[in-house]
Design brief:
The relative contact order is 0.10. The protein is an all-alpha fold. Helix 3 runs antiparallel to helix 8, helix 4 packs across helix 5 and helix 16 packs antiparallel against helix 17. The protein folds into two domains: 333 residues, no CATH class; 184 residues, no CATH class. It is built from 21 helices and two strands. The chain has a two-stranded antiparallel sheet.
Length: 542
Amino acid sequence: MVFLVTLLISLFVTVAITPLFSSLALRLQLVDLPGERKVHAIPVPRVGGLAMALGAFVPLALYWTGDGFLRGYLLGAGILVLFGAIDDFCDLPPRVKFAGQAAAALCAIFAGGVRIGSLGMLAPENYLLSAPVAVALTLLVIVGVTNAINLSDGLDGLAGGICLLIFAGIGYLAYLAGDVTAGLICIALGGALFGFLRFNTHPASIFMGDAGSQLLGYSAIVLSLWLTQGKPTALSPLLPLILLGFPILDTLTVMAVRISQGRSPFSADKNHFHHNLMALGFLHPESVLIIYLFQTLLLIAAVELRFYSDWTLLVGYLLFCALVLAGFSRAARTRRKVRRYEFFDIKIAGRLRLLKREGGVIRYSFRIFEIAAPLLLLITCLTAPAPHRYLSLVCVVSCGTILAACRWRKAWLPGLLRFVLYILIPFSVYLTGEPVARSAGTFLTRLYNGSFGAVAVLIILVTKFSRRKSGFRSSPMDFLICILALVVPNLPNVHGGDVAVGLIAAKILLLYFSFEVLQAELRGEMEHFALWTVASLVALAC
């Protein structure tokens, strides 16, 4: 239950405060201006990192019990967010930025106990690094990877999506290793990222800025080092290289190119992998999706090869790097753009655009969706056992408030329904978890679980064919949602007692996104949706 509550608090806090921070940033002109190296054409607020940090830190602070690693992690993370926010507002000199990153790394090393003490099979048997060498190497690695993620933040949703996949992998490995602290941090960061990506996928309405990207890079490397070096473990010490392999390869490649051209390795240019993909003719969302796929491959390799020899992991990673670099090198030499096949771009894409203009697909899919999503929540509430009387009282009060708003304050309905649903959905799904687990394998249970997959398909159809100009849109985040819906419930050993924790988390997030899409499509006509919500509240309370 602690993991689930951590996820929900971080998600809810981030979703709630991100629009507030965005409005404040626009008012104070704290925006990222368009430029030659940038792909956005209008000023965009860059305070999303502060919203993410608050979303992640709040549940971690609530559950902190004096754990030394968590204390060191939070100290370092707080320093990085502070320096990153100042840099977002007034552009700090590079020396000051590096000083902040070094201070954060030293907090993780000395207060958190994070240290690279062993090189595994890459060094003689039982060889341990001396304390000064271990501290220096750990400092270099933490600062280096922090900057690698920071530099990869070049397209809408790119750094956030990469790190969401990384934290999913680290969190799963932490769960298998029984490391509750690392698992909680990953879940808190994952919830904050899901909430932030709601606003950051293309076209982004807010950027994370240095405060967010440095927090993500620092968190990813510190957590992966702690998991593989913090205590005796069978996990390979090379796993951090695999988990963070794509951003590391991108950064090292860009720096090598700059040095070969006689420039500073820290100078700005458009030689990152995402820039190269767009130069090849891939669209913005396609470039992001391709990098997501690369990161997913590395994530699968890290999980499947976690007990393999260090040399196997190193050779495999170097082979991956060689293939990626060979592909980009050949593309640069030939200067050929990706072939936009007429069959796909004209016949298929053209047909999809025609269907979107005609409105038939969105009309029929939305008719099904606007019934299926609320009905699925109602069935979930009906299946749940009787809750504690305090929860029943909250349901009754919520019903009265919604009905009163329908009668006298309809303008309040969107915000009120979102608030109620963000509380109702997790409790109803969690309460349903045990009875569903007990009846696993029956036809009705398989039908019930399968209906979440059907709703996920409807989400993609509705967002893809919607003619809205604002609100929730189809984006590369659909890929992340599909990965969550298909992979998490099927991960081995992810259970809490008789309850499938992974399946519960997947259901909650799918319902969250279902109602985000539904509210956007209803365009303020919320009365029927409000009645569905009241029915679900009554079903849960009884």
